[in-house]
Write the structure tokens for this entry.
Amino acid sequence: MAKISLFIGDIRPLAGSGRPTGIYKQPVTGALELTLTGFVGDEQADKRVHGGPEKAVHLYPARHYQRLAKQFPEAAAALQAGSLGENISTGELDESNVRVGEIYQLGTARLQVCQPRNPCWKIDTRFSSDGMAAFIAENSLTGWYWRVVQPGIVRPGDELNCLESLDSPTLADAMQLCQAHRPDPADLEKLTDTPGIAADWQRKIRARADWLRRNTPLTQPQSGVPRET
């Protein structure tokens, strides 16, 4: 069980650039309706890369903020739950203890872990800290997106409860595999077969597996092993 806080926001100009963004979220104090595409009242500025059924709800682990504040002390005061644009914050879950495809109950809704967040440049601008988005990505401090499999009503203080533990990879293991320099294409292909994985993430992983198969050199003789003559 993991107790949660809720955040939603409207579209506002991004400080420093004026670009529209939905990264600014405010705490929610009452019940919210959760639909297949997200919380009613929550908005995304660029729907090419945000929102939609497979990015309906974003959770960011609260424990990551301490590490970010240590790395970027100039932004420490602003690095608080909700400030990275997440809808859900909890101190009890992170990428190491949720598995791709797992379904959780939250209020009367059900959500499925389907892909990590891909941090973008707006994070650097939001906190006036160059390199924060890259640090988040490189250290797998991304949080993740949920697919809504059953709409419902969610309230602050509700608990996330895993309905069935799966034998799928943890999100941390999946990201580590994807970030490896030259992972085994077979391992990547196995990951793409995970039930519940987001279609866009699945396509990207398959494309990389295909590229690796086409571009992996033939095994060379090991050092010290004589060649056949």
In short: The helical segments are 64-71, 122-127, 132-138, 171-179, 185-192, 199-215. Residues 56 and 200 are 14 Å apart (CA to CA). DSSP finds six helices and 14 strands in the chain.
